[in-house]
Structure formats: C-alpha cells, structure tokens
Specification:
The protein is α/β, with parallel strands linked by helices. It folds into three domains: about 40 residues; about 35 residues, no CATH class; about 210 residues, Ribonuclease H-like superfamily/Ribonuclease H (Nucleotidyltransferase, domain 5). The protein is built from 13 helices and five strands. A five-stranded mixed beta sheet has the order 3-2-1-4-5, with helices on both faces. Helix 1 runs antiparallel to helix 2, helix 6 packs across helix 13 and helix 8 runs parallel beside helix 9. The protein starts with a helix and ends in an 8-residue tail after the last helix. InterPro entries: Homeodomain-like_sf, RNaseH_sf, Tc1-like_DDE_dom, Transposase_5. It is found in: Nucleus. Pfam families: DDE_3 (PF13358). GO terms for molecular function: nucleic acid binding. This is Tc1-like transposase DDE domain-containing protein.
C-alpha cells in the first residue's frame, strides 16, 4: 500500500529523531523497503510528492475509490470480483471500434422475429472447479496480518478444474461434454463440433437441414481450422457475436444457473478428482434436460434477444443492463 503524504512526512520526522527503519516501519504499519525508498527520495529530491505518471487514466472516480475502501474495511475477506459486482464498477473497456461493431450487429439483427431466434443454437465453453473457493486474499494494512478479522479459519487446497463445452436452444439444453485436458485449441474445438455438436443437433426435429449457430468472439472460434470446418458445412450459418459483448450472450445466464446449483464444494472426506468435477457440473445440466424449468429458461432467454439488441441500439453501442 502506498503511504499517504502524512506517512511520508512522518518517515522523515522519525528519521530526524534517530529511529531506525525497522522502528519507523512498525510505528507507521508499513514495510521497511517503503521507508527506505521514501527516505532516499527525500534525500535525492527534497520532495515527497508523487512523480507525474503517463499511461491510461484511472478507471474509477474518487467517489468509487471511497466506496471500495469502505467495502473492504467492512469485509476484509471479500474478493475483488465481489467488490466490483456490488459496486457495479467493471465491464471490459469498449473502444470506439467495439462500440461501432456492437451497434452494427444490433441494427442488423434487431428486426428479426422471435421465430428466427428459435432456430438459433447457442454454443459456449466454461471451466468448473472442485470448490468455489480459491486461495483467500485479505485486504489489510501492513502490520495487521494476524488480526482476528484477517484470519481465514478453514483454508482449502487442491482445487481442480475441468473445462466443458455445451449448447442450448429455444426448447432447452442440448449436450454438455468434457473438452479434455490441456489447452483448448481450434483443433479441439473442431473435434467437438464434428463428434459431439453436429450429431446431437441433427437429432433435433427443429434442425433437419439448415440452422443458425451463435458463438462468442473467442480467438479459438476464429481460428483458421474452425473457419474451414464451417465452410465445409454450409448448412450451418454462423452468427459470431461482436467483440466484448457478454450482454448479448444468453449462454452466460445458463452457466450462472448451473454454477449456482453446482457451487457447493465436494463432500468432505472425498478425494476430489477431475471426473468428480465433471459429474458435479453435469448434474444440474441433466436436471434441466427435458424439464419445464429448463425449457422455460432457454425459451425466455431466446425471446429476450430482440430486447437485448434494442437495448444496445438505445445505448448507442455501449453496454446494457444485461
């Protein structure tokens, strides 16, 4: 943590009365390296103010900074993601080019009738874990490591992950399958499309011949080997989402519903392994298959696509509430 101007002045004052670096660090609750750095800065420049900086401007306002400080003081064990979500602080930065592409996409598809979106298959990938808790980070000041509010009582280790590939459509969930170990590549994606996706989607009555497929703008989805595979299957009309458009990807809501059901850690006493993680993720997916609740969720999300697109238009290509 960068010391305030008051702390910097205190470093110099304590130096003048003969305190050691270790004593100054303990008294001010900062590390010795910070004390040494500001002493050297004062010696070289006689100045304790911050140097001018270049680069990207701050992404938060002073009011938001204050909200963040209050949030972590109330709950030092919170995560940065939760702070961001609760304070509504973060979405991927949109460039002018991103905004333009989002707006073009929305204008192109906003007039499509609901029946059009009922003929669209949505694809996505997600990694599930053996526990929903990573190594816990603590927001604290230097010198307060062992304060009671900063100690986690039940640490966990051995977190195991498994990446899964799935697809949904207006009538419900399709297939969910293991991507496999190692890095996900375009070659792996083509194999999933060929061996899992295409055979299973062809079994559905709504898609006997041509159909539409919507996927996000992942670099893997745009790999040359993937483009060539789609060229060899002209019955599939690809609708790639514009860059940085999670608010136009209805699959995010499906994953969220699954993750909520699969978020509990594996039972204590079991030995977590990759297969157990896969089975844990498959359980809520299979629970939705053929059930009214699963069909209603997918149909609702499909019907919302025109509304999402119109929201992008109303926002001038910027982010929406979705």
């Amino acid at each position: 943590m960068k010391p305030s101007e008051i702390h910097r002045g205190s470093i110099i004052s304590l130096h003048r009365v003969g305190r050691t670096n270790a004593q100054r660090a303990r008294q001010l609750h900062i590390c010795k390296q910070t004390v040494s750095r500001w002493l050297q800065r004062h010696k070289d420049t006689r100045n304790l103010t911050d140097k001018p900086r270049t680069g990207r401007p701050p992404c938060t306002t002073s009011e938001q900074d204050q909200q963040i400080r209050i949030a972590v003081e109330k709950n030092p064990l919170t995560t940065s993601l939760r702070v961001i979500e609760h304070q509504n602080l973060w979405k991927p930065h949109l460039t002018e080019a991103n905004i333009e592409k989002r707006l073009e996409y929305a204008l192109e598809f906003c007039e499509k009738p609901a029946i059009f979106w009922e003929n669209v298959v949505f694809l996505d990938e997600k990694t599930f874990y053996s526990t929903n808790r990573k190594a816990t980070k603590v927001w604290r000041k230097n010198g307060t490591r062992y304060d009671g509010q900063h100690v986690v009582s039940d640490g966990r280790s051995g977190r195991i992950g498994a990446a899964l590939f799935g697809w949904v459509y207006a009538s419900g969930v399709g297939e969910l399958t293991d991507i496999g170990r190692g890095r996900f590549t375009g070659v792996k994606y083509v194999k999933l499309l060929e061996d899992v996706f295409l055979p299973s989607v062809r079994l559905l009555n709504p898609y006997p011949s041509q159909f539409f497929l919507l996927q996000d703008n992942s670099p893997i989805h745009n790999a040359e080997v993937v483009k060539n595979w789609f060229k060899a299957h002209p019955e599939i009309n690809v609708l790639p989402l514009p860059p940085r458009s999670p608010d136009l990807n209805q699959f995010e809501h499906v994953w969220a519903a699954m993750e909520k059901q699969a978020s509990d850690p594996l039972p204590l006493g079991s030995l977590p392994n990759r297969n157990a993680v896969i089975q844990k993720a498959l359980a809520p997916w299979e629970h939705q298959r053929g059930r009214d609740a699963g069909q209603a969720l997918c149909l609702k999300l499909t019907e919302l696509m025109p509304r999402r697109l119109n929201s992008v238009i109303e926002a001038g290509g910027a982010y929406t509430k979705y």
